[in-house]
């Protein structure tokens, strides 16, 4: 069997990141929950060397394993795939409640910085009603300051029959979230500098200007 690369010891991976001047290591694309033990070992080694770690994950993990998985991480981005059980059952072969439990646990019982991303898929999870329910639950259980990202779907793999998300859908969802009281709501996978920048929740001043991968104005003192 061909292989792309040799297995990397956690210590070697952390050393390579530090020597390359990397400030952080991200476990992403393949959900790190499926290789939790290795991710934990890498996070421990990275922290010992002053390198931060972040997990991009669906948040679908048993409560017994949750504490150990997040204990050594510095940050996480949780994919909240939708806000209905039928979506999770049909498209993810999973359930919604365990993901919500992870989010509440992160908010109330951990020091991990976390943000939430929802990919809006036309005809699947993008109605005003569902987005409104998601936002209402979000502010009631996570508060107004946890960042929420709405990102655009594009046809790929087994979902080639669904069109790309119109930018207007993202703009509408962002406005719904802001109107309900969330402070930091972003749009992704579209060109929208306004929806990618960070604003002061109190006065509305733009603090960090972003446009795609370009960083512009920066008004933070710390």
Number of helices: 8
Topology-level CATH name of the largest domain? TIM Barrel
Any low-confidence stretches, pLDDT <50, length ≥5?
A: none
Structural class: alpha/beta
GO molecular function, one term: catalytic activity
Protein name: Radical SAM core domain-containing protein
Domain Radical SAM core: 4-131
Pfam families: Radical_SAM
Which features would summarize this protein structure in a list?
TIM Barrel; 9 strands; alpha/beta; 8 helices; six-stranded parallel beta sheet; 38% helix; three-stranded antiparallel beta sheet; 222 residues
Describe, in plain words, how this protein is organized in 3D.
The protein is an alpha/beta fold and 222 residues long. It has 2 domains: 10-195, Aldolase class I (TIM Barrel, Alpha-Beta Barrel); 196-222, no CATH class. It is 38% helix and 20% strand. The chain has a 6-stranded parallel beta sheet with strand order 1-2-3-4-5-6. Helix 6 packs parallel to helix 7. The protein starts with 9 loop residues before the first helix and ends with a strand. This is Radical SAM core domain-containing protein. Residues 4-131 form the Radical SAM core domain. Keywords: 4Fe-4S, Iron, Iron-sulfur, Metal-binding, S-adenosyl-L-methionine. It comes from marine metagenome.
Topology at a glance:
Elements: H1 10-19, E1 24-27, H2 36-48, E2 52-57, H3 63-70, E3 75-79, H4 85-92, H5 97-109, E4 113-120, H6 128-141, E5 148-152, H7 167-180, E6 185-188, H8 193-196, E7 198-199, E8 206-211, E9 214-218
Parallel strand pairs: 1-2, 2-3, 3-4, 4-5, 5-6
Antiparallel strand pairs: 7-8, 8-9
Helix pairs in contact: 1-2, 6-7
């Amino acid at each position: 069997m061909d292989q792309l690369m040799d297995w990397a010891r956690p210590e070697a991976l952390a050393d390579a990141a530090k020597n390359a001047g990397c400030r952080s290591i991200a476990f992403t694309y393949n959900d790190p929950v499926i290789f939790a033990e290795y991710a934990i070992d890498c996070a421990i080694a990275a922290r010992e060397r002053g390198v931060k770690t972040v997990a991009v994950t669906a948040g679908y993990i048993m409560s017994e394993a949750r504490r150990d998985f997040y204990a050594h991480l510095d940050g996480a981005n949780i994919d909240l795939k939708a806000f209905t059980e039928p979506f999770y059952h049909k498209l993810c072969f999973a359930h919604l409640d365990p993901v919500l439990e992870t989010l509440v646990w992160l908010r109330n019982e951990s020091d991990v910085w976390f943000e939430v991303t929802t990919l809006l898929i036309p005809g699947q999870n993008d109605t005003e009603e569902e987005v409104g329910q998601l936002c209402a639950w979000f502010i009631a259980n996570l508060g107004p300051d946890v960042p929420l990202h709405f990102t655009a779907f594009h046809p790929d793999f087994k979902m080639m029959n669904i069109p790309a998300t119109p930018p207007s859908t993202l703009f509408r969802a962002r406005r719904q979230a802001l109107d309900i009281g969330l402070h930091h709501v972003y749009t992704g996978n579209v060109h929208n500098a306004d929806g990618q920048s960070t604003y002061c929740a109190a006065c509305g001043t733009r603090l960090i200007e972003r446009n795609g991968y370009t960083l512009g104005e920066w008004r933070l003192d710390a």
